[in-house]
Amino acid sequence: MIRGDKEIYVVADRVLIRVDDVEERTAVGLYLPPTALEKEDIQSGRIEEVGPGFPLPPKSDDDDAIWGEDGAESARYVGLQAKKGDHAIFLRKDAIEIKFDDEKFLVVPQAAILVLVRDIV
Q1: Which pLDDT value is given to residue 120?
Q2: What is the pLDDT of residues 90-110, one digit of tens each?
Q3: Cα–Cα dist 54/14, whole Å
Q4: Which residues pair with 8 in a beta bridge?
Q5: Alpha helices in 1-121 (DSSP H)
Q6: What is the rounded CA–CA span in Å between residue 80 and residue 17?
Q7: What global pTM score does this model have?
Q8: Are 50 and 83 in contact (CB under 8 A)?
Q9: Most buried by CB count within 10 Å: which residue of 9, 29, 66, 90?
């Protein structure tokens, strides 16, 4: 996400979420129980950015020999289910609040996301 002369990168298995206003019904039409809203156990919001995923260990030397690669080291990741633009319902206790360019966001690990709502194309 670029704002002015700054860019924010989300790392590993984290997602950057713009939080919805606290309501009984989310922006995408899901109803949240009043007990969850009172305790703030769960929250919802729109995913603005996603990290590259879960990092994998580097390839071993044997793999390079088998496949004929020159041994160049590059990062490898297992991608995330969450995508930019998805609406997420997540566990609030695992979220970290940040402020970027005077706007509040939450950084949430994918493991804390309970449900993703995605528009069908």
Answers
A1: 87
A2: 999 999 999 998 889 999 999
A3: 9
A4: none
A5: 34-39, 61-67
A6: 15
A7: 0.73
A8: yes
A9: 90
pLDDT of residue 101: 86
Amino acid, single-letter form, for residue 1: M
φ, ψ for residue 7 (rounded to 5)? -130, 140
The two three-digit tokens of residue 40, written as one number: 């703030």
How far from 60 is each of 64, 78, 88, CA to CA, in Å?
7, 17, 37
Are the beta carbons of 11 and 51 closer than 8 angstroms? yes
CA 99 to chain CA centroid, Å, is 16
Residues 55 and 73 sit within 8 Å (Cβ to Cβ): no
State the average pLDDT over residues 34-53.
Answer: 81
Q: What per-residue string of b and e applies to 31-62 under the rule 16 or more CB within 10 Å gives b?
A: ebeeeeeeeeebbbbbbbbbbbbeeeeeeeee
